[in-house]
Amino acid sequence: SISFDSRLAKLKEVTKGGLLAQLGEEAPFLKSIDNSSGSCTIGFSSPAAGKGIRGAGVFATLIFEAQEKGEGLVSVTEATASSYSGKPLTFESTPSRLTVR
Questions:
Q1: Rg of the chain in Å (alpha carbons)
Q2: More confident residue, 31 or 25
Q3: pLDDT digits (tens, 9 = 90+) for 38-89
Q4: Rounded distance, CA 55 to CA 58, Å?
Q5: What 3-state class would DSSP assign to 73?
């Protein structure tokens, strides 16, 4: 789950990042954008049991359209995932600064 300041920017699109290519073309990819609340949910899963992602890279790219000048944040508010054995993984994230000039 991602939050952003919808007063400053409207989220126009969410696209799959290159890291998800490891899951294949048929991997399910969910995106749900709610500009009124400034939130977005992104989800994906492996189509093959026991197959996952290894390494670093981009999960998704968010494309915003400026609405008004100012500064705000884009934050990951929740991230959940499981290891190949089904154990929960932990994540750390830091907010990104959103500047509209």
A1: 15
A2: 31
A3: 999 999 887 776 677 777 888 899 999 999 999 999 999 999 888 777 789 8
A4: 10
A5: strand
Token pair recorded at residue 92: 């750390």
Q: Which amino acid is at 64?
A: F
Stated pTM of the model: 0.82
What distance in Å separates the CA atoms of residue 88 and residue 81, rounded to the nearest whole number? 6
Transcribe 18-49 into DSSP letters.
GGGGGG-TT--EEEEEETTTTEEEEEE--SST
CA distance 96 to 101: 16
Q: 81: which 2 tokens?
A: 């995932």
Looking up tokens 């189509």 gives: 47
